[in-house]
Amino acid sequence: MYRFYRVCFNQWISFSKGRTLFISAFPRASNNSSNGIDTIRPRRAILYVPGHDRKKIDKLNTLKVDCAVLDCEDGVAANKKIEARKVITEIAESFDFGKTEFAVRINSIDSGLAEDDLISVLNFKKYPDTLMVPKIESTDHISWIKDKMKSHFKCTNDSKKLNLVFFVESAKSLLDLRQICEKAIDLSKIGPFRFEGLVFGSDDFCADIGAIRSEDATELLTARQLFVLVAKSFKVQAIDMVHINYKDLPGLLKSCEEGARMGFTGKQVIHPSQVPVVQKAFSPSAEKVEWARELVKLFEEHQKEGKGAFTFRGAMIDKPLLLQAEYIIKMSEQLDD
After folding, report:
1. pTM of the predicted model, to two decimals?
2. Which residues are catalytic?
3. Which of 23, 264, 314, 317 has a CA 20 to 30 Å removed from the CA of 166?
4. DSSP letter at 211?
5. Beta strand ranges found along 44-113 (DSSP E)
6. What is the C-alpha to C-alpha distance for residues 120 and 142, in angstroms, rounded to an integer?
7. Residues marked as binding for substrate?
């Protein structure tokens, strides 16, 4: 039986006028303090773009998406893989991503295509901000990434480390996730990457366990909760499942709100129309930020007076809630929209 120690609890805080505000508890983890979730760039929405499709890539200039993932994996047919590497190389040299994070998703390690993808990525004149690796199954896969990157990565400056985000897409991967994350954290200290996040690959996960994907995704509830607990225990981001029906924006919003309540920090998207809905849902509202700033201000005043816990808007406030408020403020300061 797997045991998880630093669990991220959720609390409901009552507002005046009978309203309620949900705050995700501040993540407490074994990860290095300099690699905390509050210091990692926001990835409220990560948008997949087929790496060979120049037309779709060009449209990124019109979007304000947090993270654009140029894809070599699922979004690219087998006979387009080489073309995708070529196009992504050219895009890396010429395209202005602005404030959007430039990420590349390579093929899975077991596919036999990953090393060629990685060689291509690490020979760009401009490196991507982030490397995304699907279907991580074991600590050996993390060691493979470190070894191959050390072999092909020309830059040895620690400040030029690539961010690493990897995908959990099977029962084995989920059950072994704590050991996999521990390995990624350890290798981040000496390797060419900085482990920053996890992505839950719901459709592959369903296929692996023989589940049938439903609209409300109840068959994935336990897996998603476990996934979030492990991610937050290591202070890395937890990116939620794709909402496949990209035309169903009300359903997308409902899924986002559920994910945010569970502790997810962002969501995968497959169409530009999903971006504004997702990014708004995973952003602190003006009301939340105002609550947090006022709480921090009053907490500091009470500390100067030598007082401990106090009542604020009908709720008893102590140090744990202060940490939650500080997290909300930090995240709001990183967001442009």
Report:
1. 0.81
2. 318
3. 23
4. P
5. 45-50, 67-71, 101-105
6. 19
7. 105, 169
